Amino acid sequence: MVKARKYVVKRNFQGVPKKDDFEIVEYELPQLKTGHFSVKAEWISVDPYMRSHSISRPVPYDQFGFQVGKITESKNPDFPVGCRVVTHKGWCDYSVVTNLKEAHSNVYIVPDLQGLPLELALGALGMPGVTAYFGFLEICKPKAGETVVVSGAAGAVGAIVGQIAKIKGCRVIGFAGSDDKVQWLEKELGFDKAINYKTADVSKALKDAAPNGVDCYFDNVGGELTTAIYSQMNLYGRVSLCGCISSYNEDPTTYKTTSLLPFIILKQLKVEGFIVSRWSEPENRWPEAIATLAQWIKEGKIKTRSHVTEGFDKIYDAFVGMLAGENTGKAVVKVL
Ligand SMILES: NC(=O)c1ccc[n+]([C@@H]2O[C@H](COP(=O)([O-])OP(=O)(O)OC[C@H]3O[C@@H](n4cnc5c(N)ncnc54)[C@H](OP(=O)(O)O)[C@@H]3O)[C@@H](O)[C@H]2O)c1
Questions:
Q1: Ligand 1 centre and the CA of 153: distance in Å?
Q2: Which of 5, 86, 153, 253 has fewest C-beta within 10 Å?
Q3: Same domain assignment for residues 111 and 28
């Protein structure tokens, strides 16, 4: 019998999640039946949606989060021992897959990463990369020469969106929360301009960076920053509404936002929210995005960075660190 460990959320989060909202529980893995296989986690993801989804989920709960691991035992010929898989088994070190259909996506064998690091299967070559690829290209429909703004620009999704926009010939402006992130975006990733939204006069800085206005906005954060950006959108601009992390730690019964509607009406904006699973059902298009992103990374057109925390016991710290902006690039935990 393999002894496994998992995090269980035992109390609804109030504000920033606290360490004792979680409990690490030991449990025995069940015996494998036909079609089942067991997985030893190697990399575990911490993502903003774990905070926002908790708002609507009953406690206690577990099994949230993508992870990539190695199959250690198998009674499923399609998933042989030694093979790497992406599952949504969450914050656990060992698990048994009994059903390939999971809450957020189906279990899948890690595609050919063309020699790139395995943890990218949780970042640029996983859910966040697919989010950036389809959420930007299919909703913003960018054209060469247009001005694109990305908020949360130095994070897992935002950094990829900005680089795709450059590949498509756009002028790209990113907002991020520290001077180091701004440097990284401008000097390494090739953003035309990056702005520290915590210290800049956001409206003025955007006016200077985009004197002819904004054509596409990929929104990861919401809040006041988003209002300032809407106010400088051009006629028929497109907004891809990916996330609103600025409000995830707030009480959902008191959500507020400054008025966006006049800008949407007067500028005749197209604003569309999306969930990345849109491109996995009924037709699974994730492989198409992952293959293209892998090619762009190999060609040096997209650069990636992982913010690695080591140790299963440190997942909580990695999670709240990511919510507080400690990560540049994708926040992942290496299971030792
Ligand atoms: N719709 C979908 O299917 C989908 C899929 C994946 C992700 N998402 C959303 O996309 C967004 C980015 O996700 P990610 O995985 O790429 O995370 P991430 O950007 O790698 O990490 C979160 C970042 O959010 C920023 N942040 C935290 N509080 C903020 C605030 N009050 N105002 C502005 N920025 C704040 C921090 O960066 P700074 O230092 O810059 O503040 C932090 O590093 C999230 O809103 C997430 O929910 C949506």
A1: 9
A2: 253
A3: yes
